[in-house]
Design a protein that fits this description.
The chain is about 30% helix and about 20% strand. The protein has about 220 residues and is of the alpha/beta class. It has one domain: Metallo-dependent phosphatases (Purple Acid Phosphatase, chain A, domain 2, 4-Layer Sandwich). Strands 3-2-1-9-10 form a five-stranded mixed β-sheet. Strand 1, helix 1 and strand 2 form a beta-alpha-beta unit. The longest helix has 14 residues.
């Protein structure tokens, strides 16, 4: 079975739709997300709708939590402005969806125990840039992390750690939407990228009067 792994969509429904189309072509049966469904980009309602319609299993990221609570004290100015904009643009139904997301999850898929966290299992705001076997809790075959927007994976004796990268705002120098695919038969994870219509998203960021940097960084992948 193929399992799609995503993170940090950040209201980029254009990029997400591209990734979902790729999953459909490949025959992906289950999609798991390491959080930050919303924030930064101008399509929060469309993004939550895609999560619902495609039955994406997601946890809550720090931007999701900020949109729910209104607390932006831990965010930079551009991120905080995007959260405020999102709180005004999003429906109560979608806000309830975000509020109902857990901070971490354990999901067994085809005999593989997958643990999902945004920052780390002990701290949802922690940035994990280097992977080690110590990150894996007992019984966890695959740990999926997000938050850094940097794609990477490491395999150890007792399991693997993967950050599928950011669908909606990559920060590893590659502006293409990032994701990963787990093959439960071979127990291997492939890191993948696809192109999407960045210009449209930048145009809509401008039309929404969101901070200009949120568009320019989509071009640089930084």
């Amino acid at each position: 079975m193929l399992v799609g792994l995503i993170s940090d969509v950040h209201s980029n429904a254009v990029a997400l739709q591209g990734v979902l189309s790729e999953f459909e072509k490949r025959g992906v049966k289950v999609i798991l997300s390491a959080g930050d469904v919303v924030g930064y980009n101008p399509y929060p309602e469309e993004t939550v709708d895609l999560f619902r319609r495609h039955k994406i299993v997601s946890i809550q990221g720090n931007h999701d939590r900020a949109v729910v609570t209104g607390d932006t004290s831990e965010l930079n100015d551009a991120a905080a402005e995007a959260v405020a904009w999102t709180r005004n643009a999003i429906s109560e139904k979608s806000l309830s969806y975000l509020a109902g997301l857990a901070s971490s999850l354990e999901v067994r898929v085809d005999g593989i125990m997958i643990c999902i966290a945004h920052g780390s299992l002990t701290n949802p705001n922690e940035y994990i840039y280097e992977f080690s076997e110590e990150l894996l809790p007992p019984g966890c075959d695959l740990l999926v992390l997000g938050h850094t927007h940097i794609q990477g994976a490491a395999e150890f004796i007792f399991g693997s750690v993967v950050n599928p990268g950011s669908v909606g705002q990559p920060r590893d120098g590659d502006p293409r939407a990032a994701f990963a695919v787990l093959d439960t038969d071979t127990r291997t994870v492939e890191l993948e990228r696809i192109e999407y219509d960045v210009d449209k998203v930048i145009e809509d960021i401008s039309l929404a009067d969101l901070p200009e940097i949120l568009g320019s960084r989509l071009v640089s992948g930084r």
